[in-house]
User: Fold this.
Amino acid sequence: MDWGLKNRLARMIKPSDGRSVMLACDHGYFMGPTRKLEVPRRTFEPLVPYADVLSVTRGVLRTSVDPSWDIPILLRVSGGTSVLQNDLSDEGLTVGMKDALRLNASAVSISIFVGTAHERQTLLNLAKLVDEGEDRGMPVMAITAVGKELEKRDARYLALACRIAAEIGAHVVKTYYCEGFSKVVEGCPVPLVVAGGPKLNTEADAFQLAYDALQAGAIGVDMGRNIWQNDHSVAMIKGIRAIVHEGATVKEASDVFDQSKGASIPA
Ligand code: R5P
Assistant:
């Protein structure tokens, strides 16, 4: 791995503990102005001080992220479908490596859809991106997307998808937490982070997900809706941060949330 690629990865994953709190705000690329992300900057500006990485598309980066903010950018570079389609897997590359470099991205992210009609296409997109990333010193995150088929998220499927992503050369993989997650971690030779998925019923549920994923070997989260769809989004990210970087339990993270919530005005 070349120096530039290692340096970018070190911006994404904190060298002090090998962990990362990535804030996922890239949903608009297929969901449009989804709830609580209608005005992206309004959503993420208060959260950025507590995130290690901000995950966005180039359109949101250029319009809504202040270039002076000290936050590494994980740039979403795949897309081409919308929630109006039943099958979300027909994705292509939406950003060239030249623009990713011009935008000073610290890494690029791409969805792969294993087991779908577009499996081959999305895996070859990943291969192409990894070739370009290795050439230009840009880390690539593969996302094991399931589209609308949320029930696919079991250990057997996710282990398969994560391993394929790593074999093709992804430097980091984002996947979902599931029962038996340690099997997914064991079979994946590159760092794994977990998405949160749709908003869970309680804050404790989201903290539990992050805690269990970390216990099983994930190096962090790339979480969106369970943070910014919460009425107390800053309190929420503080709780997640405590789990990821301070080894907090679910109870301790809930205490962080309650204390911070007491001091904040609902969004
Ligand atoms: C899908 O839009 C993206 O891959 C998200 O970045 C990912 O699903 C993480 O966001 P959430 O925690 O809301 O699932």
Remarks:
- The first strand starts at residue 20 and ends at 24.
- The mean pLDDT is 96.
- The pocket of ribose-5-phosphate is lined by residues 24, 26-27, 55, 143, 195-197, 222-226 (CB under 6 Å).
- The beta strands are 20-24, 53-56, 73-76, 78-79, 92-93, 107-112, 140-144, 172-176, 192-195, 220-223.
